[in-house]
Design a protein that fits this description.
Elements lengths: L3 H8 L17 E5 L3 H15 L6 E6 L10 E4 L2 E4 L5 E2 L4 H8 L6 E3 L7 E5 L2 E4 L4 E2 L2 E2 L2 H6 L5 H8 L15 H8 L2 H16 L8 H4 L1 H10 L2 H11 L11 E4 L4 H9 L4 E4 L3 E6 L7 E5 L4 E4 L1 E4 L3 H8 L4 H8 L3 E12 H4 L7 E3 L10 E3 L1 H4 L8 E9 L11 H16 L7 E12 L5 H10 L5 E3 L9 H22 L5
Parallel strand pairs: 1-2, 1-16, 2-12, 7-18, 16-22
Antiparallel strand pairs: 3-4, 5-11, 6-11, 7-8, 9-10, 13-14, 14-15, 17-20, 17-21, 18-19, 19-20
């Protein structure tokens, strides 16, 4: 089979004119647009399938930025490992760890510190630890919950009523806010669900879909009639290896960027970085039904296309050929966020918290939404005599903060860290990553909208990425690989190949 990377390099000089670039063989051509983790996973799966015996295909991966990886970016600044985007992934979703092992990173996998799993929640300006036995926001141990100052006595009594509130048995969607108020009450929504659950998605709990983001809660309600009974049952059924001593988070020892670096080495696709698709056209009667026009005048013809871009980018690409699909894609909302990493000398700050970090309810009116103690959560992120913190700003709470310059954002973070944790020292290193329109919002009814949107896609046009069926790294990997398998099945059925 032709070395596609080498082939791509040899064809670069031909991209100055608006002429089609046919391949010199009869293999089906699949184009992946978007070189984030979803698109890279799709391209990897296409190559893996061929290596494992699938019929030969040609694959092109196009990324408009100079680097692959999207929001998965790790900066190694001296002894410090700073994550610009995701710093880890959920261990219970297997797809990221499976991919890491496939590409030879099994020895790099590590879990978060199992002895420091506490999450702190700010109340009236002071951090309080989540009571022991809390599974996400659901109490499973009576004594720690009963004596915790985080929730008032009336709030605790209302949460206990979850044992008696009638269960909703249908499959209809509702907002996270409506679900939590119905089962656990308003205080649980304000103090727990909003900062912890909505914070994961940078979302507004009053708009956030429970079925698209936390369907397990509805499953527990239907099966057990109560979140508390459901969590207790799940805890009893869990094997010892997944008990409370195990961390729910996994990462790579040298940073999440190692996944991107190694994955790129395993791609057999022709990779075009710094290039952008401007328009996608479709002619179902053509030998290759898809035509992709690039910003440098090049034209690619393809049998199938996987769009692994943000939804609004995909909308622009398909607008001419499929205006209804473009409109549905544009209906997916996005918000902008930023991460502010700060490094302190440990001697200057002591040990402000013993845990993974803190979350801050919207009602506290803080400028930052949350703070992760990165070098406590994961070893090897900083030397022992330093403390690496990462603050989160923006989203649906304070979108105006993204318009401030870097110095202002650092001052915002320092002000809140001083008020909440008493850190008065100046950081020795700061780093800011901004993600403009980087966070898709799963508003109520999201899954139905995605199903309708996918139904509008013609054969051979597939969607993958955080906008659709999961925002986490494992979800994006799964979507990319699933899209690749569907594309392979399609081209094998409609266009016989020559070996």
């Amino acid at each position: 089979m032709t070395d596609l990377k080498e082939f791509g390099a040899s064809m670069t000089a031909m991209y100055a004119t608006s002429t089609a670039m046919p391949f010199s063989h009869d293999h089906p051509h699949i184009v992946v647009v978007g070189g984030g983790i979803s698109g890279m996973s799709a391209a990897y799966e296409l190559g893996r399938a061929v290596r494992d015996g699938a019929a030969p295909i040609a694959v092109t991966l196009i990324e408009r930025e100079a680097r692959l990886g999207g929001k998965v970016v790790t900066e190694r600044n001296g002894p410090f490992i700073i994550e610009g985007g995701p710093d880890s992934f959920m261990a219970q979703k297997p797809w990221a760890a499976e991919l890491a092992r496939e590409i030879g990173l099994g020895d790099e996998l590590m879990v978060a510190s199992p002895m420091r799993r506490t999450t702190w929640v700010v109340r009236n300006g002071q951090p309080y630890p989540l009571p022991e036995g809390m599974l996400l926001i659901v109490p499973t141990r009576i004594a720690p919950f009963a004596f915790s100052p985080l929730i008032s006595l009336p709030g605790k009594l209302r949460m206990a009523l979850d044992l008696f509130v009638p269960a909703r048995r249908d499959d209809g969607d509702e907002t996270l806010a409506d679900f939590i108020r119905r089962r656990l009450g308003h205080e649980a929504l304000d103090r727990l669900a909003e900062p912890i659950l909505s914070g994961i998605h940078s979302a507004e709990c009053e708009r956030q879909s429970i079925m698209a983001t936390f369907p397990r809660f509805r499953e527990l309600e239907k099966r057990h009639g109560s979140l508390i009974r459901g969590m207790l049952a799940a805890r009893r059924a869990a094997p010892p290896s997944s008990a409370a001593h195990q961390s729910p988070f996994m990462t790579l020892r040298s940073g999440m960027g190692a996944l991107i670096d190694r994955l790129e080495q395993h791609l057999t696709a022709r990779i075009l970085t710094g290039r952008q698709v401007t328009t996608l056209m479709h002619d179902p009667t053509a030998a290759r039904p898809y035509r992709l026009y690039l910003d440098d005048g090049a034209l690619l013809e393809a049998d199938a296309v996987i769009l692994a871009t943000p939804a609004y980018v995909a909308a622009d690409l398909v607008n001419d050929a499929f205006p209804d699909l473009a409109g549905a894609l544009r209906a997916i909302r996005y918000v902008s966020t930023a991460t502010i990493s700060l490094v302190y000398r440990r001697a200057d700050v002591g040990m402000p918290l013993d845990g993974y970090g803190l979350v801050i309810p919207r009602s506290e009116r803080s400028q930052i939404n949350a703070c992760t103690l990165s070098s406590v959560k994961f070893r090897h992120r900083a030397p022992d005599d330093y403390l690496l913190l990462r603050c989160f700003v923006g989203g649906s709470r304070k979108p105006e903060l993204l318009s401030r310059d870097d110095n202002d954002l650092v001052r915002v973070a320092q002000s809140d860290l001083r008020a909440i944790l008493g850190i008065t020292a100046a950081p020795v290193l700061t780093r800011i990553y901004r993600w403009h329109n980087g966070n898709p919002q799963y508003d109520v009814g999201h899954l139905d909208r995605i199903a309708a949107l996918e139904a509008r896609c013609p054969d051979g046009l597939l969607l993958a990425g955080a906008a659709y069926r999961g925002v986490g790294v494992p979800d994006c990997i799964k979507q990319g690989r699933d899209a690749a398998r569907r594309a392979l099945a399609l081209v094998a059925s409609v266009r016989p190949v020559k070996s």
